[in-house]
Design goal:
Length: 139
Amino acid sequence: MQVVKYMFQPHGDNRGQLIALEEFNDIPFRIRRVYYMYDTAEGVVRGKHAHKSLEQILICIHGTCKIRLDNGWEKKIVNLEKPYEGLYVANNMWREMYDFSPDAVLMVLASDVYDEKDYIRDYDEFLKFVKENGDNDEN
Ligand code: T46
């Protein structure tokens, strides 16, 4: 499983840093939704689901957190620690977000609007789905 991390270009000057993200230039899909989570309680694990078709980029714009990715064959842990790095999370990928620092703000750019029907929230159902839908360890 390849972990795809984007390193965004900061536009820095003596006032500080600015990052601009444009769909199809910096982000590989049309951005149809932005959401973010903050004030995450200690010890919490969020996510614990996959999406059938949604693609996302996760950016920890403040603080730090960890992301566990699982494509049904392999698991990887990714640290998000910088506001200029974005983790691409494809569809058919189980994700868990955890170890949030108290000041963490995790922002997500999503390729579609919110749709509960796109979620797979049961791990066994996820394994069945990826195995039936022809995904393999190249993901
Ligand atoms: C994902 C990970 C990285 C909405 O009303 N609209 C939205 O766009 C979202 C994302 C959530 N909600 C509501 C649904 C729930 O009542 O907000 C509540 C918390 O959502 P959820 O439990 O799904 O949050 P996470 O952190 O477990 O997962 C979220 C995304 O849902 C998911 O797509 O990939 O972040």
